[in-house]
Amino acid sequence: MKKRTLSLFPARVLTSRTMEKSVRRVLPRSMLGRSLLIVLIPLLVTQAISLELFYGNFLKVVSRRLSDSVTSDIVLSLNALEHLQKRSDKDWFVAQARDHLQLVETWRPGARLHRFGFNHITGPMDDDLAHALDAAIDYPFFVNWKNDPHTVKIAIQLPDGVLEVDAPRKRLDMGQIWLFVGWALSSSILLFVVASLFMRNQVRAIRRLARAAEQFGLGRDIGPIRPEGAQEVRKAAVAFNRMQDRIYRFVSQRTGVLAGVSHDLRTPLTRLRLSLAMMPRHGTVRGEDLKQDVDDMIGDVAEMEHMIGSYLAFARGEGAETPEDVEMQPFIEDVVTAARRAGARVEAVMVQPGLHVHMRPDAMKRTLSNLLDNARRHGGAIAVTAYAVQDGVCILVDDDGPGISPERRESAFRAFESGRGGGTGLGLTIARDIVRAHGGDMELESAPTGGLRVKISLP
């Protein structure tokens, strides 16, 4: 028995998960929709229960009593007409029934009914009247509810003719049911509208907080947000403002410290560069030429300066720059022109006309310049392409160098990861960090020319 229970347990879990997925497909995805659904379902259930209680108890009881009352008057009329023999007496009773019982009776001697029973309407009145007549009289009858909106026509087949009785509809029909239904629906709609307005204001505060967090994650300074909405939302907004202020202070302090360290390091490096530049390159020490040693030291100093600049750029980020709308064609052409002056061989530049991106131009220029410099050092010919996609802009930088193997592409983005060409290992890290700060992403692929393709996606 234990083994059978254990074997059925995964099936039960799978069934519950399937049901949960089915429910999730039906439920609204937004918080506003789910909140309104939470309000709407109990409201509808409550109104349905109220309708059922009224319709199933009170209305049926009253309808049976009204039907019994009309049936009793009809039975009284039949008994009186059977015992009264004179025509004048029958006419007198018919007049009395019309005045005091509100029943218009017509005697048709020799007539025959062709229909029996009743034609249905909405409500319990037709069934209750038919049951009451069937229980009280032994003659066949037909009840017509549809010919006249104000009168119910009852035809009773007697042995020698047909007795037609016109009963006022108000003696059988309770029109208050529609008033009750209208009141229930209107009150439900009114309460739902009020709840919708209230929930919309609450959700608006949450959406504003989410939008502020998204903009802050993209590196845009939106300032503190105004706390509003429910108490929990206000606390979240206050906590977000405090977090934003702490992060800004931390970044500012870190940037200031690293800027001072960079300045302190660049000063002795500059003195070393001047000293090396003034040293004689054609002398000898212990019979060895100094030219090669001096050139190597100058290269080391330049590499150290480049490393310090990269470290500072990586730690500082680009959050202080204000984003703006930039046209991609002249922007990429300027970056390519600067790369060509630095020795890059950019052979193809294809930019779709009319492309605009909301970005920080200096940060993105640093990213593209870094990628073109990597392509120059590791490859030969470079091609730059930019075109529009469904959700933004795609920029491709291709080279015909050795490329990067698929298993090493993700590790190439790690800080201080150096390739075969050397370097500080921060170029791709800084570039992807800037692109992701814009809400995009960067991927490494194989270029059609056999080298490396860097794919940048921007919103």
How does this structure look, described?
The protein is of the alpha+beta class and 459 residues long. It is 57% helix and 18% strand. It starts with a helix and ends with a strand. It is a multi-pass membrane protein. It catalyses: ATP + protein L-histidine = ADP + protein N-phospho-L-histidine. Residues 200-252 form the HAMP domain. It comes from Acetobacter farinalis.
Task: Write a short abstract of this structure.
By secondary structure, the chain is α+β, with helices and mostly antiparallel strands.
Task: List the SSEs and their pairings.
Layout: H1 2-26, H2 31-83, H3 87-100, E1 104-109, E2 117-118, H4 125-136, E3 141-148, E4 151-158, E5 161-168, H5 176-217, H6 231-278, E6 284-285, E7 288-289, H7 291-316, E8 324-327, H8 328-341, E9 345-351, E10 356-359, H9 361-378, E11 381-389, E12 392-399, H10 427-437, E13 441-446, E14 452-458
Parallel strand pairs: 2-3, 9-11
Antiparallel strand pairs: 1-5, 3-4, 4-5, 6-7, 8-10, 11-12, 12-14, 13-14
Number of helices: 10
Q: Which runs of at least 5 residues are low in confidence (pLDDT < 50)?
A: 1-9, 420-424
The overall pLDDT, averaged over residues, is 78
Q: Oligomer, anyone?
A: single chain
Beta percentage is 15-25%
Q: Roughly what percent helix?
A: 55-70%
What coarse outline follows from CA principal-axis ratios?
rod-shaped
Q: What's the N-to-C terminus distance?
A: 58 Å
Largest sheet composition: 5 strands, mixed
Write down the Rg. Answer: 46 Å
Task: Give the total of beta strands.
Answer: 14
Structural class: alpha+beta
H and E order:
HHHEEHEEEHHEEHEHEEHEEHEE
